[in-house]
Amino acid sequence: MSVQTSRRPQSPAPGSSGRVPPVIPTQPGSGGRGPGGPKKERTKRKDPLWAKLTLVLGAVLMVTSGVAIVGSKAVIGQATNNIAQRNLLGEAGKTDAEGGSSLEGPIDMLLLGVDARARWAADDVRSDTIIILHIPASHDQAYLISIPRDTEARIPAFEKSGYPGGVDKINAAFFHGAQKGGGWEGGAQLMAKTIKGMTGISFDGAAIINFGGFKNVIDAIGTINICVTQDVSSLHMSYVDGKPMWNADAKKTGKRMKPVSYEKGCQEMEGWQALDYSRQRKTLRNGDYDRQQNQQQLIKAMAKKATQSGTLTNPIKLNALIKAAGEAFVLDTGAISIEDFIFTMKGVTGNDLVMLRTNGGTFNGNGERELLNEVSMEMFRAVKNDKLAEFVVNNPDVLSTRK
To answer: In the UniProt record, does the keyword Transmembrane helix occur (predicted)?
Structure first.
């Protein structure tokens, strides 16, 4: 079978229409379409596309295994058209010498979660969720490694936004890259460049995950099972007359507000609940480290539900799912077409998703900024050298366990 590819598009000049605006519902239940803009030109396959389909195409996390897809050719074509594709990696993409135009070896993707609001400007957003997705050359496992948002990092100069470079919290790299017309594309490029300088890892692809868009994805598959590890009250949402609302909108009603809360234990959550729970940070015992675990759990729960609910064999449900996924992501698969990326991941399921943590899942800094310990840096070197499975066996404490 021949492999169809398309090269990563060039970045638009600063101030051009290349900006990817944040599109987030202003309150739970409202809609919102994903960013528009030019798409990559792709040559469609002429043979039947029997490749397995991932629920969240950009993350390549929700892959089916042993499930026949109904209407594959039409589905893949629609999915490609619905996903905004931009150059998110810039100089941090794998070179040809590193296998950048091939998926035969290990695959590394950078997943950036933004938690914007519709009223925020495109250049006033930080990426508080930073995840490296590593798939070894065997393509039978997937690992998620979260980098703490407050990690101290040397952020390199970035000509597109005029940023001169400096030392800051790593989540600020996205902000600095987005300035002066750089938009979300520039933010992702500077983040990828910063992480490459810190870890040595180059990337095959990247995705900006609009966590607000995840609500629609979860709603498309029903509910997902989330295990709450500690009682927590939401800092972002309240009930007004029994209806969940953002606090800013709830205050405008002038009515009594009751904070949304989550009690310890496993439970089925609707999209807005799962999203709100995964946003909590300040009231958790281990702050951002606990939030990282919750967000990893959210992604894994979505993956498992997609493969167990029959959604992927129902063309009506599948089309709704793809539409929702298209609104939740901005994607860069580099020189590889989306369908080939998906096909390569066909052996990975939600159960094969291993969640890892840095710094043993607890604070390791000076109170203001986090510092990655030596074990964490060794883990990143293991990713670069495709030795992560061996590293995890020898360092089981890096596994993200739920208590």
So the answer is: yes
Strand partners, 130: 112
Secondary structure percentages of the chain, helix, strand, coil, to 5: 35, 20, 45
Its sign, for the CA torsion 341, 270, 81, 26, is negative
- Domain extents for the chain? 72-229+264-398
Q: What is the pLDDT of residue 365?
A: 75
Are 382 and 398 contacting, i.e. CB atoms less than 8 angstroms apart?
Answer: no
User: In terms of Cα–Cα distance, which of 49, 38, 65 is closest to 303?
Assistant: 65
pLDDT band at 275 (very low <50, low <70, confident <90, very high): confident
pLDDT digits (tens, 9 = 90+) for 54-89: 333 333 333 333 333 334 444 555 555 556 678 999
User: Residues of 202-239 as b/e, b for ≥16 C-beta within 10 angstroms?
Assistant: bbbbbbbbbbbbbbbbbbbbebbebebbeebebeebbb
What residues pair up with 146 in beta bridges, in sequence order?
131
Inter-residue contact 199 to 153 (CB < 8 Å): no
What's the CA gap between 14 and 12, in Å, rounded? 6
The Cα–Cα gap between 322 and 206 comes to 18
- 142-146 and 353-356 strand pairing: parallel
Specify the CATH superfamily of domain 72-229+264-398.
LCP protein (3.40.630.190)
Q: What is the pLDDT of residue 102?
A: 81
Q: What pLDDT, in 10s, does the model give residues 179-207?
A: 998 988 999 999 999 999 999 999 998 98
Q: List 83's β-bridge partners, or say none.
A: none
Name, in order, each residue with C-beta under 8 angstroms of 221's C-beta and a sequence gap of 6 or more: 55, 302, 305, 306, 309, 311, 317, 321
